[in-house]
């Protein structure tokens, strides 16, 4: 099925609807943007014309005089050329090495791991540890979560009775990590022993030996591999891993960096009755992704993206932000992750700080002028006016927003004034896969690729939130058109992309098994 046909299809028996694509700015604003963006060329045009006229009037005698002057001052000319060559050499040696994303692979569990909303409630009932009120609470959350009927749980949680243990947690980790990495290496043709850097992030499962050591052992990586394991850093750890790999690739020449992002469900299912901890049970699901980065210039031609910016924001110094996602024991001594009622407010503050840093790096001058004018009017002149929200759609073609939950996506959509089209990858990822923690951004990018939307030169903004509290961003630029037909090997959406987008009701009832 063609990309165009895919764009006009909905799934689950829903009626077909016309796909409108991203909203465009109004003609007035678009005209203003064009004028300001090309202001430099307009200002330089008279000088270019004057220079062209002067050059057209040069005579052979003028050129001979210039040559004679150069010969007479040969020592000065050679000195100037030497200084320019030295400065250019120093600049080229000190500039950051470009980091390329060769490919990515997202893990797709088998059908035996599928958990419907009804299966979820059935397992919760069978557990025999939840009160009737809290079973009703979980049902209510699940019905409004935006999760569909095809998300995944590990075997230990689906078994009757459930058998969460270290061995089962290791099996889940191995299945997710090795499944994604096998697909990635097979598709890129890169040998395991060519990898010089390994970064694995998993927030809540940190065994000994570490997950990164499991990767090194399984693939028999070379002895001098730089291996890192990030734990306890929440759903934003995937972009922290990308940033760390970027920094390491600045000092490891001609290297590949393997980044693996995942979360482990087996040992982190909450078996108590604290409602702030029950939210995680309803939202988090099984999943993971592997990403291969390179700093080799020869890899640019076959890479998908180039990493342009990473921006990290940490509000951990504020007690309210620090405790809004907190792992602890409940009153009965059962360990869980408590989500504070302040979470959305804290996330909004972290996002504001992050985009304040990112904005000047990515926004066109036209947007920066409007924002600065609004800020001056409000702060200096005391004018009663709404602060101008920069239009990030002028800076990016695609948005990958961490699918942490419906409320998170609703808030970001409203604050950034994004369209349904821009939010589609995030909402469909939440529906199809649930909250897969740090790997959700890669399922979203894979969705965009499977839809055939990525073209050379397009810019992608990944935004993630995590405990601590952190908000992190990564900006990528596409180096080529991404053709869905070439993504069948490692894109989990390919075989079913024709069914999406689907209509996700505000409330989806859980059918009782009784």
Automatic annotation (TrEMBL):
SUPFAM superfamilies from the UniProt entry: Thiolase-like
Any single biological process term in GO: fatty acid biosynthetic process
Pathway connected to this protein: Lipid metabolism; fatty acid biosynthesis
Alphabetic keyword roster: Acyltransferase, Membrane, Transferase, Transmembrane, Transmembrane helix
Compartments where found: Membrane
Reactions it catalyzes: a very-long-chain acyl-CoA + malonyl-CoA + H(+) = a very-long-chain 3-oxoacyl-CoA + CO2 + CoA
This enzyme's EC code(s): 2.3.1.-
Gene (UniProt): LOC123448355
Family in the record: Belongs to the thiolase-like superfamily. Chalcone/stilbene synthases family.
GO molecular function term, any single one: fatty acid elongase activity
All residue ranges annotated as the FAE domain in the record: 91-379
Organism from which the protein derives: Hordeum vulgare subsp. vulgare
Residues spanning the membrane: 30-53, 73-93
Stretches for region Disordered: 1-22
Cellular component, GO annotation: membrane
Protein name: 3-ketoacyl-CoA synthase
Domain Beta-ketoacyl-[acyl-carrier-protein] synthase III C-terminal, first and last residues per copy: 397-477
